[in-house]
Amino acid sequence: MSDGLAIVGYALRESVRKRMFHVVIVLTAGFIGLFWLGTNELFQELDTITPPEGIDARTLVGATVLGLGMFGTLFLGTVLAVFLTLSAVRGDAERGLLQPLVVRPLGRGTFLGARFAGAAAVCSLYVTAVYATIAAIVHVEGDWSPDRIVTPGLELALAVSILAGLSLLGSVFLSSTANGVAVFMVFGAGLVAGLLGQIGEALDSETLRGIAHDASWILPFEALYQDALHRLTADTTGFTGFVLQLGPFGGAQAGGGSLLPWVAAYLALLAAAALAGFARKDL
Amino acid sequence: MIFSARGLAKRYGRVNALGGVDLEVDAGELVGLLGPNGAGKSTLVKIAVGLVRPSSGSAVVCGSPAGSAAARASLGYLAELFRFPGWYSADELLALHQRLAHSSGGAAERTGLLELVGLADARDKRVEAMSKGMQQRLGIAQALVGSPKLLFLDEPTSALDPAGRRTVRRLLERLKSQGVSVLLNSHLLSEVELVCDRVVILLDGKVVAQGAPSELSQPRGVEIETDEGVRLFETAGREDVPQLVERLVGEGRRVYGVRLLTSTLEDVYLEYVGEEAA
């Protein structure tokens, strides 16, 4: 236990010392600034927006801009998760950073688990803080709050934790650059799945909806993001609800009761694969 | 027996890195591992510390299978290529390794180790601000955290200046006197000859020679300094010296000095591995 906490502390310290962390903080400041500006402009022009009949303009603008902000948050969280974990095993072994640690009595499983815990903690805190900030901006500028305010933030945190897990798994087998590219491509695939679902909804295509559904479950960070979007307007019904379901960068879809168990199982599968690979790895 | 390897072999794809090595290290023994690049020295050490899995054979560290938690708890290791996070100070790095090694030595152990490797003044200095030599000394201190019974040092003096090498040599002698066993992997033959009880020469993943440096060295004749200059008697040995001196004096020569010639460890090493491989 003490070994694991020592490595968690090591990972946390590494996280905030990495130059990438500072870059993400600067990017985040820029993102929040622009988001604030855009939200302010949109709500100031609310009176000039004439939505289709039956649609509440304030809800439409609030949910859309917050959904967009959530996508930005997920993207930045993904950047952070990837750069904190992309070289955790093979990359660090190639640089000679890993060997002095893993010859100590702590098991390789403890090491991997602690690295994941450290990265997931940093990324979850980051994503939750950014989400809370953008939700507060939307509330202050537009006097609009989502139907569910806490759960979407937690789901975003869980989504970046999955991406950190994927990146950690990749770091066992791939070099740093290859792993970074691979994880961003996986993230992009999730995004494409969301867009396909959106198109499927608009065209009423069962096939596209099916592909998007399956893809988002293969990549459950996308399913979590869609569920988080859905929860923003969970109580909104009628035509407004239908339009909002189309949401930006992937449609809002309720994950259902099996999503969280599947996420837990998915993380367990990632852990098992990473442990099996790391246990057999010559350093 | 503090370390033993039996038929230890390792293949990386088609490359045979180790081809069935038998090796033993006794308590308090300092063993030098020699061999050209690619001979399998680092692979052998990595198997012993649990970084690499053997393809066949077995190794035991302090009574536990190599790579097990119990084995890793009783050893210290300095890798040939290592790096510490730049943002750690020397003291913080040792504190991290104390936690991982379950050492209860606290600040006193850290202070002692830093003094031992000549880094007492660099306690709060960050790794990124240290020279390569200082980092290597810190690496040695890190390997000694938790007072291991067996130490694996892979090229511990490669980045050190002559003064640093002498510090390490003294440190090794001190560890030996404390009963710590050391397996030293080094290219610096003169250093190995000075400190090691026994040397093991590896070539192409196999042990080609082992023994005490004095056992491995061969007589190379007798050199006698006379008033006519230095004369070399290549086939003579220690027993022949009185006769040789008597003969030279009988011939009217004045004898100023006699020196028995033996091969150095370098000569022995080159004999086994060949000039080209070396």
Rg of chain A, please? Answer: 20 Å
Mean pLDDT of chain B: 90
Order of helices and strands of chain A: HHHHHHHHHHHH
Helical content of chain B stands at 25-40%
- CATH homologous superfamily identity of the largest domain in chain B: P-loop containing nucleotide triphosphate hydrolases
Q: How many domains comprise the coordinates of chain B?
A: 2
Which residues of chain A form runs of ≥5 with pLDDT under 50?
A: none
Number of strands of chain B: 13
| Average pLDDT taken over every residue of chain A | 88
Beta content of chain B comes to 25-35%
CATH architecture of the largest domain in chain B: 3-Layer(aba) Sandwich
Quaternary state reads: heterodimer
Care to give the gist of this entry?
The complex is a heterodimer of chains A (283) and B (278). Chain A is mainly α.
Description:
With 283 residues, chain A is mostly helical. Chain A has one domain. In chain A, 79% of the residues lie in helices and 0% in strands. The model of chain A has no long low-confidence stretch (mean pLDDT 88). Chain B is built from ten helices and 13 strands. In chain B, the strands form three sheets. In chain B, strands 6-7-8-3-9-10 form a six-stranded mixed beta sheet, with helices on both faces. In chain B, strands 2-1-4-5 form a four-stranded antiparallel beta sheet. In chain B, helix 3 packs across helix 4. The longest helix of chain B has 16 residues, at 162-177. Chain B is globular. The relative contact order of chain B is 0.15. Chain A binds chain B through residues 2-3, 6-7, 10, 13-14, 17, 95-97, 99-107, 280, 282-283, and chain B through 12, 46, 49-53, 69-70, 72-73, 75, 77, 79, 81-85, 87, 96-97, 99-102, 139, 142.
